[in-house]
Design a protein that fits this description.
heterodimer; A: about 240 residues; mainly alpha; about 0% strand; globular; B: about 250 residues; alpha/beta; six-stranded mixed sheet; three-stranded antiparallel sheet
Chain lengths: ~240, ~250
């Protein structure tokens, strides 16, 4: 067992050397989580916007469901996706278990409710403010959803950030459906878990530092982008 | 759009027949009939809570009355003529984009092609004296400028009737002057105006007809000169004398 300071020094030298293995792990983590957030946004943005403005009787049920799903335990999601993708499962023939795709599916299930709920919240506030004006301009249906989504872009950026934070930091689901296979499905969090249990603290700590740095950078980027967008305030969308 | 079509779609009058609106068991609006659009500018006046805004929102088809019907040039409001009847709200609602893009957005919705919408948008803002802020994000504009952009957007759609719900109540006098000048120019080219106003001076400056409302009912609808000088209606006289109507 190394001492903390030794592990920290070694971790820093690992980060500075940035060797192939480390690169591979970081890039796969990013790829899996970004794809999951993208999938979550594609589903969550329109669904959240629709939930915000619909008068359907299903609305309260769906709102409660998405809010409840925000707290889904990752291991349970991992288990369900594992059962679906395993050879005996409904999606077994697709042979996706222990692939990055399986990890993306599991993380998408985790982040979609977050993106949906946060989108719904942003859009309902806006819709209250915009409803009359949009009706006066004759904006209805899909066009109205699109306009509200674009108007809520700052709020949606925060939703994406929250979703990415959940995805990149999550370990329970990806370790079950990905299997933590070296060079195939090994991501930062699963590596940290494995290396810590092996007593190899330097790699675990190095990845931990990268993970925290990444969270900081994503935050800074989103804040910077938000400020830039507020400054410009111009768009061709909607 | 063909000329014959635009003539047939023209909304020169807005009529409310037997309008009733209730909320929580209280009757907020009860009008046997009201017809607007005969005078170039009609002012709707009356104390707060008289039902002025509710009436305007109902006539603009933002609210559906519990009983009665609204007719735009003789037929029920429909999506095709939506942009023919405009409403300027007390607090302008602009989208989070540039002043120009706000106008372009409305024009595109009305079916104007992108390059033409841009040209017409620039023209509309220039006509409103807003050349300098064309590309400024709407959120950075002052309250008066925002209302002027909202008016430019409403006028760019070339409505036949424009309702104003205390549109200058939160606006500085300089902006109010510019808004009134622009409205006068638009009226000269055929726009019919219906404005809710608490500003008697403004009513005298712009309106030819006055509708006084109280307790969800129309007390009097008369030509401006008659209303201010000769009315015999006791409620109107009390309102003109500055008494509080309760």
């Amino acid at each position: 067992m190394q001492s903390f300071s030794d592990a920290l020094l070694e971790a820093l030298s690992l980060i500075i050397a940035f060797d192939g293995d480390l690169q591979e792990i970081i890039l796969l983590s990013l790829k899996v989580s970004l794809c999951a957030v993208l999938a979550g946004a594609v589903i969550g943005f329109p669904l959240g916007a629709w939930l915000a403005i619909t008068r359907s009787r299903l609305r309260p049920v769906l709102v409660t469901l998405t809010s409840a799903m925000m707290g889904l335990p990752p291991v349970v999601v991992g288990l369900v996706v594992y059962l679906l993708l395993s050879n005996a499962g409904v999606l077994g023939p697709l042979q996706l278990l222990y692939t990055p795709t399986a990890m993306i599916i599991a993380q998408s299930i985790l982040v979609t409710p977050i993106l949906t709920a946060l989108t719904r919240e942003s859009i309902s506030v806006l819709d209250e403010h915009y409803a009359d004006q949009l009706t006066l301009l004759g904006v209805t249906g899909w066009r109205r959803l699109r306009t509200l989504l674009w108007e809520a872009r700052h709020g949606l950026l925060t939703a994406v950030l929250a979703g990415f934070g959940r995805a990149i930091a999550e370990v329970g689901a990806v370790i079950i459906v990905g299997g933590n296979i070296n060079h195939v499905t090994r991501v930062m969090t699963t590596t940290i878990a494995l290396e810590t249990s092996k007593g190899n603290l330097s790699l675990a700590l190095g990845l931990g530092i990268v993970l925290v740095m990444m969270a900081l950078m994503v935050n800074a980027a989103v804040l910077g982008l938000g400020a830039y967008m507020r400054d410009q305030g111009v768009s061709r969308h909607g | 759009m063909a000329d014959s079509q635009s003539v047939s779609m023209r909304v020169g009058t807005v009529v409310g027949e037997s309008l009733q609106l209730e909320r929580g068991g209280r009757c907020l609006l009860d009008l046997p009939g009201i017809s607007l659009g005969q005078a170039p500018c009609t002012a709707i006046v009356g104390p707060n809570g008289a039902g002025k805004s509710l009436l305007v929102r109902t006539l603009c088809a933002l609210m559906v009355p519990d009983r009665g019907q609204v007719l735009w040039a003789g037929s029920a409001p429909d999506a095709r003529r939506r942009h023919k009847v405009g409403l300027l709200l007390q607090r302008p609602v602009l989208l989070r984009r540039s002043a120009l893009q706000n106008v372009v957005y409305a024009l595109r919705l009305a079916g104007v092609s992108a390059p033409q919408a841009r040209r017409q948008g620039i023209d509309a803002l220039q006509a409103a004296g807003l050349d300098a802020i064309i590309d400024v994000p709407a959120q950075r504009l002052s309250g008066g400028e925002q209302q002027r952009v909202a008016l430019a957007r409403a006028l760019a759609l070339k409505p036949d009737m424009l309702f104003l719900d205390e549109a200058t109540a939160n606006v500085d006098p300089a902006s109010t002057l510019m808004i009134e000048q622009q409205l006068s120019v638009a009226m000269e080219s055929g726009l019919r105006l219906v404005m809710i106003s608490h500003d008697v001076g403004q009513v005298r400056r712009l309106a030819q007809e006055v509708v006084l409302m109280h307790n969800g009912q129309v007390v009097e609808q008369s030509p401006c000169a008659f209303f201010f000088n000769q009315t015999n209606n006791p409620v109107s006289r009390r309102w003109l004398a500055g008494e509080l109507l309760v």
